[in-house]
Fold these 3 entries.
Entry 1:
Amino acid sequence: MVAREFGQRLWRQGRLISYTDKSPIPPQHKNWFARVTAKQILWVPASSQIACALLFLLSGGTALGPILSMICVLTTAFLTSISVACKNRLKGERSSGHYRALERLKQIGVVSGVFWGAILGSAFVLNGTSHLAELSLLCVLLMLLGAAKYVSTPIVGAVHILSILLGSCAGLLVVGARTATVSAFILMLMGGTFYALIKSLNYNFVTRKLRSRALEEANETVEILLREFDEQGSDWLWEVDLEGLIVRPSARFHAAAEREISALARHPLIDLFGDGPDRDLLADRIREPEPFRRLVVSFTANGEQRWWSLSGRPSVNRYGEVIGLRGVATDVSQSKRAEAKIAHMAHYDGLTDLPNRALFSDTLKWTLERRRPEQLVSVLYLDLDRFKMINDTMGHDVGDFVLQVTAQRIAKCIGAGDMVARLGGDEFAIVVTSLQARGDVVDMALRIIDALAEPILLEGQQINSGTSIGIAFADSTDPNPQEMLKNADLALYDAKSRGGHIALVFLPQMYQAMLTRRLTESDLGSAILKNELELYYQPLVSIETNETMAYEALLRWNHPTRGQIQPSIFIPIAEETGLIVQIGEWVIRSALRELATWPEHLSVSVNLSPVQMRSPNIIPTIVNALASSGVSPSRVEIEITESVLMNDSEANLALLHKLKGLGLRVSLDDFGTGYSSLNYLRSFPFDKIKIDRCFVEEIAERKDCQAIIQAVVALATSLNMTTTAEGIENEGQLTRLKADGCDQAQGYFFSRPTPADQLGHKLLASEAHVKAA
């Protein structure tokens, strides 16, 4: 491209080559071109010898012959010495020597042209019309030799030809003969032709030299790049013949394959790789040579699996015949391992290394699609009991350890064809295909329950957990994987609602119970707006005086179509959905508003759930209710259960202290049913302890119940706390509690929970009002 542009420019503008900074030859080629052109000096002595020999012959043995021969010999010697000197300078390494040699070439061309012109002019004058044709031919020959000698420097060639032409024509004009004049005219035409020839030859010379130089540089660059690529790059070249045999394996190929070059040469390329579809595809490409890109094949070297990415295309000889395949190979083992790691992370749980929910769903779907009619497929769904408490009280590191141990224990209980997965949190699911009877599946579930019930030891600390399991079987001919998992989840929910630590098989009525629960959840959201909620009150009676001291506010829901729904049904739903916060605020406002109508000696007790305790609005709600009702805070008692302190105990204790600071009384309900009851009494100064009904029910029959109640009463008395016994149903229980020193009692023996307008003091007030009227 460079040569072509330069040649066109030179031809179009008629510029002569000049070895200066303004030369149209690219700078990177100037030194090289000067060196190539300077070699033309070697033509000078040879052409001078030829001219001398011809001139001696043409002199015809006249007296002029020796003289002219001597002059030619001297000229030849002079020019030869100059040529040798220039040639010696060319042997130097500095580029300036090339340019000085070219300057000498220009001087030689000018001097030799003038000299030959003078000699030929003299020869024409001395010989007259004799030897006219021979001398004219010699003139033409000298101009032709000049055009050939100075093809690389056309300006020098032009001066050389012009000098010869002027000298010869001057001599012919001196002769004056008509033939001499005609010869002079012909010589001038030939001189113009030779000048044009110089220009044409110079263009071809420059173009050819530059194109050759560019091709040489390109070949050198390609050779260097290929050598660098093959020896130091991360990729390497490979080549096979039509039979698939490796040709000329490189050192990089040998290092990547970890085989000797001699063992690779003429070895089938396909034999390096392991069986697989990619290997078969490579064999097809070698058998029928076709281009291909990034074909990944695997092989084993020193017991380690690796992967190569091959790209190739057919190789041809100088005749265009396909002689094999050649291409580039890349070791992609690292990226393949990274891809495998990413794929593993996408389908496996990072903590337990069990399949995750996505892989579990895909596996269950695949299993059901390929299930034989007689094959039994079941899903077991489970989560851990008290896992949140373990996480919150002992830390997430301990919780993670429990999950890992749980995964290991489950894996030991299932069959080889089964799969256990961690769905998230403390939830696990199992696809069981190894058993043929439903009873065996239930037995497997019970083994898992027993295994997870065993304590976990961590640094000498014993961690107790457990589980319940829901089981669903693929009963239909076209079972749905999502439906099976949902059914197992419903069975798990039912198992946990029954106390846990059991395994239940899904039954259709569980689905109906789930629909009822959803309906309850939906209706509960609008129960407040529809004025369907109501507070009932149960009295707390002084055992000593048998007088009512306070009432506990108990929530009831009067559903328009289902009648009155028990709190044990809708309260858990309200807590799970968070509706308990809104409902609890309504209870506080309604209870304090009702309290404002009661006699001053009565107080009201309101229960707070753990969910309410986490609400940021609990303090503002109580303060606003106190302000709007106008009742004294000392007449309001807040009841909490031990479960409130088991979760986020520090935050909840801080909240209790704020309630205490408002002047409210705080009582601990269901005392003795938790795990750290005594610790809670030390953590917070409760005003009252409520003894759970489970101890009261059998106080007359069981000595241990009597001992527990006596201990609790004595403990409360020493801590200046009031004690209230729940679940009093007969006189014997009351008498026993009175003997043990219990302060208050609550239960059906005194009154069932009743609406506010049916409370004893209100009935008395109503009767007094009627009598007064």
Note: Residues 528-769 form a domain with the TIM Barrel fold (CATH 3.20.20.450).
Entry 2:
Amino acid sequence: MCGIAGFEARDASDTARAVALETALAQRGPDRRWRVQQGGLWLVQTRLAIIDLSDRVAYPIPNETSDVWLLFNGEIYNHRALRGELERAGHSFRTRCDAEVVVHGYEEWGLDVFARLNGMFALAIVDERIGEVVLTRDRLGIKPLVRTTGDRFAFASDVMTLISGGLSAAETDVSALRQFAVLGYVPPPSTGLTDVAHVTPGTAVRRRRDGRLSIERWARPTFGQPNGERGAGADELEGALRDSVERQLVADVPVGVFLSGGIDSSLVLSYAVELGARPQAFTISFRGFGDYDEARRATSIARAMGVAHQTEELDMGFSEAATLVQDAFDQPFADSSAIATLALARLARRDVTVALSGTGGDDLFAGYYRHRAHRLLVPLRAVPGSALRFLGRSGPAPGGERRSAIRLARSYAGRLASAAQHDPARQYVELLAPPLAESAVASLAFDVDRGQVLADLAEQHEFEASRPAGALRPIQRFDIATYLAGDLLTKEDRATMSVGLECRVPMLDEHLVGVAERTPDDQKISLWSGKRPLRALAGRRLPADVARGRKRGFAVPLGDLLAGRWRAEAQEWLHALQGGLVDGPRAARALADGTAGSRDVWLLTALAGWEARLKRERTEHRLPR
């Protein structure tokens, strides 16, 4: 796991730029760092050593003739098989590092090498033979890679790194901020800045020496059109998950597991133990906050599996939480579970360098409440919109808890009613997030038309109406391109890499993705439960209360915190904001008088924090552009 960056060489200030990039990437790779000029570019890499810890590994990695060079971030889980194939073809290797198969594979197969890689990766290949740079990411966007879209070519593992090197004008993209205000994250390919964009997963950006640029897709979109293959069975699912965990346990450093007490992470731990590993498990506790606290269940699972288990109670103030998110995230990011993920990463890093998580099970096998709510569209057509709207606004939710079944039902009813006149695709988009309170919208320095933002988002991602109504495939394709890549994977990458911890996601292994794509909709979901194949698997391997438990998600008790011990500190923090994207005093009043909910307040906090970091980067790094 590493940090990478590069830019077009031009003038005497470039050495200072390279140093700035190297410094900015240090937390993503605390073990070693390199900066070199190669092929008309400055190339920078920092390394978190996972496989082959020796000094033989040095970046950029060359081919045998030193005219093709590789910068690499990620892990290739099938590197041993690829190495054997390449050695038989005549290639020689200098290290045991998994990344080295990429440079020789590119030499042997060209861009076709990317489809052969089973792993998570973001990389740059400098091919001096033809004067070309290739940027690419894995199929799902597990590892990040952004590039400039202006007149000077540059790329990096995160947005702020480019600002550190004076390679971005750092001007805010208001269209992207409107999407953030609706969703709580910036959906790819936007980043929040006008001149920086994400490299689209499963594509290769080819930039030639004369400045010409082309983009080629090497992987078909996940949950694209059905390919006519037979459906997947339970045995195939179990085999794919076991094999994925086995591949992702391989490392030359200690490996642990993030254990939430839910189905997905518990299955990952279960297979790790079955395969002979005894990884430590790590859990964040919310003691005193009801079913937000899954520590007791996680402890029971870890004890039953005979693994060491560490729990830590989340104990931080509002300002500390806001600062942690501000420092870790390079884009506006308001998923409050980032607070817990940052604490979890910090806990795990004390003892391990790699952690496996359960992220992805809900995305592959339709485990979200909104998937079931969308299937209700057909029967709900007989219900008058006025009745749905009444249910959506009829009184406060008990305790203000996100996890209240009544609150969820009211929230979804209101959103379905607001989109009743639209097609099924637009109705699903309405389910993604509840509307911001009027007082929160009024606290922003830009207008937000929720309906227009959602319509634009659906068009941007070619999210057609699902036919027949309730079909999952287009929904899952849209979710993976937006929510999985923009929220979940962004959260885990930034939180873990902020402390130099590699996070692996066995649920998103390419073979498991294939199983999910071939599983019929009615085998994944009913009106009463989601991700049925994983629940069935859990029923054979896990305690009944885990296998049958309702989905909780990895959430923090934000409502209770902002209504309790965070309240005064949050009001003071917001009130101190002067100018910028968020009207702090107005936001503080909205919190005080209860006109803005906890999600609204945290979204305003995250946006203000991101803007503060953006200003700091602009001020501290005054390199000429």
Note: Residues 148 and 334 are 24 Å apart (CA to CA).
Entry 3:
Amino acid sequence: MLNLMRRVKSFGLKTWCFSLPFCATLLLSVGTAPSARAAGFIGYYTVGNFVPLNSSYYWSCDGTYGNFTLTETGDYPYTNGCVLSPDTSTLLLTGTNDGSGVPGATDFTIPAATSGIFQFDYVFNTLDYPTYEYAGYLLSGTFYPLANTDGQSGSVDVPVQAGQIIGFSVGSLYSQDGLPGTLTVTDFNAPTTPEPGTLTLLLIGVAALAWWSRRTGRARRVIGCVVAVVCISATARAQQSSFAGTSITGQVALAQSVNLRQQAQTNALTAAPLGAVRLMAPGGLPRPALGASKLSSLATVDPPLQSLSVVQAPGTSGFNALSHLDQRNAYGGNQFSLEPPNQSIAVGNGYVLEGVNDAIQIYTTSGVPVLPMVLASNQAFGLAPAINWVTGVNGVYLTDMRVFFDQGIGRWFIAQRSQDNDVFGNPLPSSHLYLAVSQTSDPTGTYNIYIMNTTNAAHPGCPCIDDYLQIGADQYGFHIAWDEYNASSLGYVDASILALSKSALAAGTSAPAAFQFLVPYLTGFEFAIQPASAPPGAANLVASGGVEYLVSTSSGGSQIALWAMSNTSSLATSTPNLTLAEIVVPVLSYSPPGLANQPNGYAPLGISQGAPIEELDGGDTRVQALVYAAGRLYLTFPCGLFDQNNSFVVGGAYIVLSPAYINGVLNARVINQGYLMLNGNHLLRPAIAVNAQGNGAIAVTLVGKTGDYFPSAAFIPFQTASTPGSVQIAALGALPEDGFTGYPIGGGYGIARWGDYNSAVTASDGSIWMTAQYIGNYPRTEYANWNTYISRKQP
């Protein structure tokens, strides 16, 4: 009990319970007595007590899963909603699909019997195209989307009040092909009338405390005790997890040095004809399914959903940057034809470094290229070309480009990864991490090249390949996170976080201090973990031996994971010893994005394939950017949203957290959050950057048939305590996306890969620099027409 009281004090609450027996009584009644819950569709929550509703026709089914019949004669021989409950633990709900072509939904609701937790697991199945069918849950008439693609699953755990309408909804955006989505609900729990024993204990505890307060005259102190114990019960949901890591110094080793300007001036290989190409779409390994694991956390109230306005960007400068043509022609044309563009940007000392897929260029801040030609990243790392089209010999295939400038040490970083292959291009069960670190603050000069074997062969589930690099930095370390997949089955294994000594990298040490965490996939948050970086002028957290914050999302829900990697200052020693802690933070609700449509336009590759205009892949909910400034964390990620006209669009979310890591205890609260949405149109891959004052911008691609927007480079101005109001166009798109990934030639089915990320950073003058994908009216290759645009905004 004494330890318990100390814990109350640690949360800033006075411990006013002087009588241990009475506090014990209160703990029994409030903190430990279980609330009464209906485990399954029984009692009050029997399926027959729910109210069914859909947009047209009555509905029923014949009792066999998958066979549906209408109970009212209509013009369309398709189902319009059906519910089945083969047992008290399972509910199957199908959506509307009556052939009318009109969107509709099937709802299945009931008032909550009393206050408590509404909880269930779900799986969504559909034979339709992704995003055409969708499912979610209902609270007081508000729809919270959960899934819109076949096979999506997860858990929901939210508080509800007595009488609040709860339930489920499955709908269709087109309702015309007879392929309704089906939501399968299991492990349903909802609050019922409190058990007599629980209520009795509560009354006994309150009565006893009231008697004691009259005897002692300490009524205020009794209230303090009640508040303290209730707070303990609530905060226990944000249970902290800890993970052990390993010092791997020696596994990241200096291999050679390469001068970028010299490499760009030497291009001795014979250029291959543009027709001699091998098509390859980098990255994009699927997010793993969570399975039966449950996430448990308090939920927050979602902020209002308001559409942004669209304006031309005032006071913004920018320039057209790397394109598919540039990337394809680098290294004498001995490159693959790649889509989508994954671009990254770094700014410092009057230079702008952009990396896209496997190409690099350095510009002045006015947009003048500094290198005499676009450099293939294989050249930057001192490697043979990815493919020699004359001999047919394959070299190292690099992908997942990330670049960074650290003003504190005056060094530029270029990071990429590879799955190894033989000379014929066949994949091998091994992988590597490549890291180039400049020897000076000149990005065009000489870089030290570090290589790490990331095969991890001795680890359970491996040999592995590393996928989707994410980078960040604090005062003492440069950090790289990636996802590990089995090299043969491509099954997901775990998340890796690598911490490297910045001082050792700046000094060119042959074997910099290195520490690694391998985080098993248990809750759905151990995927695409994003490290934070601080903008120029903002201080890193040096308490607790140096702390690096990281954030990750799940595939959908109303929580994110906050991670703290502490004692990063030990990276300056020969025996680094870091710790990793994680908590789950309740935030706004989010669900996976779907597909983004685009206007019709001239698409010569599609015409040659006899294919319609492509839709764009909206990606998933992984964090796009994380910034630490003025003690706050700023993050953005994509999500699917229903706009104010009830149309499903691809949008995003932003969250501002106030984190704290004190005496090994991690905590955080949300100080601002909201959605990024444009009625009838789409905002792809939102990436935030803010300056030391918390002012900045969010880079996006704007596209949509409703607004007649071809894929355009845009951004959303942002301030810490405000709600964004507009999306500003930096470079208006001129044509539709017309790349090979959405056509038969690239194995596509009308859905084109769009970049895994945009990128935004802050310069020393507080300006925000962004690079976003768009389709301009520029020379192109036969197989793709993507461009990138770099823009600058002074907040």
Note: The chain has three domains: 2-34+195-235, 37-191, 246-272+307-793.
